[in-house]
Amino acid sequence: MYSPVTPEVVSHLTQLVGDENISTRQSDLDLHSQDQSAHEAHAPDVIVWVENVAQVSRVLAYANEQRIPVTGWGAGSSLEGNPIALCGGILVSFEHMNKIIAIHADDFQVTVQPGLGYKDLNTQLASHGLFFAPDPGANASIGGMLANNAAGIRTVKYGATKDNVLRMQVVLADGRIVEAGSRSVKQSSGYDLVHLFIGSEGTLGLITEATLKLAPIAEHMSAAVACFERVDDAIQAVVAVRGSGTDPAALEFLDAFSVGSISESNDLDLAAKPTIFMEFHASHVGVLEGILNTVREICQEAGALNIKTTTNNAERLKLWHARHHAYETIVRRHPDQKFYISDVAVPISAYPELIAFIETYRSEHNITAYALGHAGDGNIHICTPFTADTYRSVYDMNTEVVEKAISLHGTATGEHGVGIGKSRFMKMEHGLALDVMHEVKQTLDPNWILNPGKIFP
Amino acid sequence: MYSPVTPEVVSHLTQLVGDENISTRQSDLDLHSQDQSAHEAHAPDVIVWVENVAQVSRVLAYANEQRIPVTGWGAGSSLEGNPIALCGGILVSFEHMNKIIAIHADDFQVTVQPGLGYKDLNTQLASHGLFFAPDPGANASIGGMLANNAAGIRTVKYGATKDNVLRMQVVLADGRIVEAGSRSVKQSSGYDLVHLFIGSEGTLGLITEATLKLAPIAEHMSAAVACFERVDDAIQAVVAVRGSGTDPAALEFLDAFSVGSISESNDLDLAAKPTIFMEFHASHVGVLEGILNTVREICQEAGALNIKTTTNNAERLKLWHARHHAYETIVRRHPDQKFYISDVAVPISAYPELIAFIETYRSEHNITAYALGHAGDGNIHICTPFTADTYRSVYDMNTEVVEKAISLHGTATGEHGVGIGKSRFMKMEHGLALDVMHEVKQTLDPNWILNPGKIFP
């Protein structure tokens, strides 16, 4: 079906991008054969480090003509195998396209290249008092965040990546360069191509530039941590906080196993009980005091065993450091094992049922698993250590949890994307809508050269 | 190209929807021949009032087979001719599909039929302390708001319609019923079909059901009104307020003509000067005091001539009543004229240049025109009274203003949609992206039966 990457192909690509921007060395291929997921590595046949949109256009037009697969690569920090070149072919790395093109400070916007890490972006934006809010962790590239519609801890207030993008430059499979959207924050002008490309995981086009929405950095921040005897009580508090008008910037749930793990490793005095972590942002410190009073009342009413609140920055950062590094902390406790990361999301009213299902399943099947996630969004991750011997049982648990989430009117993936691991659930989740996605794909990439093997089963 | 609506067609449609749900009476056709725009009326050949998705599916499958145009109809309150049946054919009215299907209060969601008016929805939601935030005015139907991606005054805080929808049921041109999205607030599961259909103005499918995001009704609200000598000063204040972390729920600009008009008619003591109207929402009244202090400082620094602030509900409602009814007030001042409503949006940093362009143009061409709009979003409307004699000059002004907005990295339409009046700007605004939209249209509606004559030039 696809053509092989022959020496002639490599030679032609070298002409397109230059000697210094191409490699077929095994060490380079290996470094770009796997993301941070547990999916099997697969090396591309050749890597090109593109430097500008014209090169991307020429590479794609050529690959399309030759029927060679093309997969985009940002930072390799994704968690569902999204940039693994399953069918080999050309890996287009955006690592060299990592510049800020323009900061539009008065507009709370920035125009960037896709290879830029969001943490690096925020470092450069700090002096303007602005930041790009989605925070998936690691130092994900903007291009990867757009391709996977990444989200993170602060989504409950600031939205996911798709909520923070105004325009993009995209190169289609045939090399056409299109501009989707505009720098106007209000747009009602024809089909919303920006959102069609966001979350398409590089299967409809490669994003070469984006104008992002920025938020003002809050002048004052506070944190609150409350633990509960029962998951239901914790989730009752989550629902009440969301409805209270306190506008949380983060509203996280950690199960007892996760809290036990991070408390021990971070020298925090937290009980190993279902716990919610909250953060609030405000322009006046007085506002925060009012919010924390409301939150304390809500948590008490929900039966909290213990509530800590702080407007002290150092204390807040210490608490949140533990949450931000929960995954690494958990991984360190299981040094010789790989980790299976599950990502599902449901309407918040179904969250207790989903968590109860997970708890029952892992206990009945005797599986070690840590459940933690963005409760304010109904999003949960299950981090499960496994070995070759236990892989099948962990894989099966993921299947059961995803099917449960879908049955609760939720989704197979809240923020990691479909990638390799979730394509088998697409028909169940989307039904006939998957056919529509397939028709759109067929229209925009008729030779299926873009990131083959992803999204569609 | 299209088949006529013959007696046989009417007879077949009658079998599909029932005697009581179909009409070819001229009075009914006339009532559904025009929205609230100044575009020329055009009657459909037949109207069907659908009652459920199965009927919509059967009507579309039949129309597609017969090559008969189909245009959707909600409340007829749109402002760009969006539901005018330009090519005749079948008008599918959703006026009878106007029920709330389910209120998911804990999830801050509601599932509704498309014919429901958003004001009626909010009346029914009030007892839950929740509301659907987009507020385009009139009593627009939810289906129409989705189809046009309507927005309104509170978009600056709560987003446009597209930001407040989680899932939709859509009937495609061939009658297939698809479910796009899910009730999970976080979704990263395949192509974002929800946003593909939103704003497609009934040219890709007809929306038969939607699950909307709701917001908690703020416990406390305040208003602030500040007037300035110069437009630039007013916009400087707008930018500063947006960047202050005070999170305005409304941030409106009215030019001197508009303010003069509404002040006189509403017995308000406002100077006929460039003015900004602001609203703030908070869970504590103390929060509002802090916000109003910040806002007063910002406006003073920007050179405000006068600043009024209030946390009193009656005073706030009186001020905002004037803003909400500005259009009607202006229309009443020109009783024998029609109105041309222009809708463009630009990045906020370009707003002063856009407003200056409008002021210069109307003064040089001696055109009476009122400029007012959602400054926090860079969105402006120009309401221009016209007669048969002055139509051409008003049309030309609209052309110039739209081209200016596009040149400032803005858009031909911020919230009214493309409809009839803006299709001629699509190539200029979107370039090659318009070809992509065309390809998507061709794929999903190969016989071009859905709302022909809209969006594409």
What are its keywords?
homodimer, 457 residues, alpha+beta, Uridine Diphospho-n-acetylenolpyruvylglucosamine Reductase, domain 2, Uridine Diphospho-n-acetylenolpyruvylglucosamine Reductase, domain 3, Alpha-Beta Plaits, seven-stranded antiparallel sheet, 35% helix, 20% strand, globular
Explain what this protein looks like in three dimensions.
- The structure is a homodimer of 457-residue chains.
- Chain A has 457 residues and is an alpha+beta fold.
- Chain A folds into four domains: 7-95, Uridine Diphospho-n-acetylenolpyruvylglucosamine Reductase, domain 2 (2-Layer Sandwich), CATH 3.30.43; 100-216, Uridine Diphospho-n-acetylenolpyruvylglucosamine Reductase, domain 3 (2-Layer Sandwich); 220-327, Alpha-Beta Plaits (2-Layer Sandwich), CATH 3.30.70.2190; 334-417 and 425-433, Alpha-Beta Plaits (2-Layer Sandwich), CATH 3.30.70.
- Chain A has helices at 7-17, 26-31, 53-66, 118-125, 142-148, 155-158, 193-197, 231-242, 256-265, 285-301, 313-324, 326-332, 351-364, 391-407, 426-430, 432-444; strands at residues 22-23, 46-49, 70-73, 90-93, 100-104, 109-112, 130-131, 165-171, 177-181, 206-213, 215-216, 220-227, 250-254, 275-282, 306-310, 338-345, 370-373, 379-386.
- In chain A, the strands form four sheets. A seven-stranded antiparallel sheet of chain A has the order 15-12-14-13-17-18-16, sandwiched between helices.
- In chain A, a hairpin with a 4-residue loop joins strand 5 (100-104) and strand 6.
- In chain A, helix 8 (231-242) runs antiparallel to helix 10 and helix 13 (351-364) runs antiparallel to helix 14 (391-407).
- The longest helix of chain A is centred in the middle third of the chain and has 17 residues, at 285-301.
- The first copy, chain A, is globular and about 70 Å long.
- At the A-B interface, strand 9, helix 7, helix 10, helix 15 and helix 16 of A face strand 9, helix 7, helix 10, helix 15 and helix 16 of B.
